[in-house]
């Protein structure tokens, strides 16, 4: 159902205070914003099903299925141990690459209580509007005592292994440099939760946490994708006060937090004297001041084909989607989109046809679809 239509032509070409050279970019085409669904309680993630419907997580503990712009009854069979507090709750939903034949859906969520909580990943088969054959495939350890910075984004690689981002819990920054902790890492597991034998820090000890580590030195990375055209992994992460980052993720690499950062602590003090250090990777792009990046997508499709190969980042702080103009692996410009909505944007996804879907971050959150104006 079409609830409301917006038509705007406004965009802002940023001056790129993120250390980018000025560049003339083609303007974003004329577009229309359609409301697909509303009344969602802090929607966090969206997945496209093969039948054309959508799965949308609500952080407060529901999984909605949206068909023909109508929200179905909540899907049953969700985890019974979801911890909803602060930034915790039901987070990401992704489909197995072979979903059409195996029906596996993967869900990340916070579990535990105020004293002991963690990020957990469950998989289950989606049959109709029911999740069945539930299996916990991963839990981040050690548990923590803060209800924030869970991270929780996931992305499948071509070999059907699954990447999972784990955050720093705000108070556990030192764990970012410790391979015996699964906090503040990108984790890589097989689709059944087992350890891939070619992970970079596999040891002879089957119980070693490092077996699961793919990369480290992160903070709170809420954007993650595999770009099949470039054959690279992109991630974005929240810095403290400044120092938000876009990174290209490689196995075994140290991304530096908290030893190197462009950001300050929230009270204005320096976190580290270093902005670079030997054997620590610099970000592909630094956002200072912070923009609070969240979801991320690479554009492909016949709609808005001008964007093909470029990145889209949902931005919480400035209430927009950030269009990153790419030249190969380099960001050569940025454009601010959809600011007229005046809504925090939690996630952005690109439909196979090229239309853009966004989730607004509020207790009356919405699913919005952006299409070219001429396609109405």
UniProtKB/TrEMBL annotation:
UniProt keyword list: Signal
Superkingdom of origin organism: Bacteria
Keyword Cell membrane: no
Residues annotated as signal peptide: 1-22
Family matches, as InterPro entries: 6-blade_b-propeller_TolB-like, Glc/Sorbosone_DH, Quinoprot_gluc/sorb_DH_b-prop
Pfam families: GSDH
Keyword Transit peptide tagged: no
Domain Glucose/Sorbosone dehydrogenase: 40-369
UniProt name for this protein: Glucose/Sorbosone dehydrogenase domain-containing protein
UniProt organism field: Paraglaciecola psychrophila 170
């Amino acid at each position: 159902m079409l609830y409301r239509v917006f038509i705007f032509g406004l965009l802002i070409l940023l001056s790129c205070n993120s250390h980018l050279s000025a560049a003339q970019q083609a303007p974003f085409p004329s577009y229309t914003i359609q409301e697909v669904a509303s009344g969602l309680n802090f929607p966090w993630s969206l997945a496209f099903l093969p039948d054309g419907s959508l799965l949308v997580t609500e952080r407060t503990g529901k999984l909605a299925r949206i068909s023909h712009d109508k929200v179905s009854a909540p899907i049953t069979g969700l985890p019974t141990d979801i911890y909803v507090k602060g930034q915790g709750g039901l987070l990401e939903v992704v489909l197995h690459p072979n979903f059409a034949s195996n029906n596996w859906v993967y869900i990340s969520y916070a579990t535990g209580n105020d004293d002991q909580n963690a990020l957990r990943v469950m998989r289950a088969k989606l049959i109709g509007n029911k999740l069945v054959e539930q299996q916990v495939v991963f839990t981040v350890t050690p548990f923590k005592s803060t209800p924030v910075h869970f991270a929780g984004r996931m992305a499948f690689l071509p070999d059907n292994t699954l990447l999972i981002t784990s955050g720093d819990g705000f108070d556990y920054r030192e764990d970012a440099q410790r391979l015996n902790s699964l906090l503040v890492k990108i984790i890589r597991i097989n689709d059944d939760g087992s350890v891939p034998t070619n992970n970079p820090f596999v040891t002879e000890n089957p119980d070693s946490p490092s077996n699961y580590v793919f990369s480290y030195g992160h903070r709170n990375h809420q954007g993650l994708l595999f770009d099949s055209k470039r054959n690279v992994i992109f991630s974005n992460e929240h810095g403290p006060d400044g120092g938000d980052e876009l990174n290209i993720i490689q196995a075994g690499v140290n991304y530096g937090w908290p030893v190197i950062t462009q950001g300050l602590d929230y009270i204005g003090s320096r976190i580290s004297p270093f902005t670079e250090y030997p054997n620590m990777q610099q970000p592909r792009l630094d956002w200072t001041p912070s923009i609070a990046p969240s979801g991320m997508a690479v554009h492909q499709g016949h709609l808005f084909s001008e964007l093909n190969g470029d990145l889209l980042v949902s931005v919480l702080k400035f209430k927009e989607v950030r269009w990153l103009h790419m030249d190969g692996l380099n960001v050569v410009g940025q454009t601010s989109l959809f600011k007229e909505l005046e809504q925090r944007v939690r996630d952005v996804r690109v439909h196979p046809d090229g239309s853009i879907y966004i989730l607004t971050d509020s207790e009356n959150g919405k699913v919005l679809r952006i299409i070219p104006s001429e396609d109405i």
